[in-house]
Amino acid sequence: MIDYQNAVLERNLLAARFAQEVMMERGHKDQYALHMAMNPPQVVDPGMRSIPPPKTQQAAPADRRARVGRVRAWLFYSASCPACSLQIAEVKRLLRLYPELDITLLQMDDDPDFLRRLRDVEGLKAGPIPNDQLASYQQRVPLTPTIWVENKRSRETWRLEGVTTVESIERAILEASE
After folding, report:
1. C-alpha distances in angstroms, 158 versus 59, 82, 142, 171?
2. Of 53, 97, 109, 149, which sits 20 to 30 A from 88 (CA to CA)?
3. CA–CA gap between residue 60 and residue 97 (Å, rounded)
4. Has residue 134 been placed in a domain?
5. Mean pLDDT, residues 34-58 taken together
């Protein structure tokens, strides 16, 4: 099974390199696609064991929940970005674990229908970035999705780029809350 996975990953690596060359030739500006082409998945170590099934989502322990109040987070996304849709789903899973988490979704492009759906249907705290601030944010957030986690007291910020799992976001939140 691992040999098969390695063969598939090697094939994907070659495809990613080819896609990168084509995108560069055509002057393509899709930041996520360029990021994935530059940072393809790694080949699995032959000694690696199979991944256990995911744990059921239960509320986080009280000590972790208390630490979440010390941070705030932002998810920068684009409505047209497929990876951002995956990240929004992960954020919703995270909010089931930590309903008190202060996280705001900030839209990097202009799609009021998508934004309205996030707010009204999904019940998420979301908004557009004001036009006068958009250029500044685009320089600081070159890739969507990106999550910033900030300690409210020290104002120190952790930055997670690309699709990030609930566990990775939780780890960043716990580190930021210390």
Report:
1. 23, 23, 15, 10
2. 53
3. 6
4. yes
5. 52
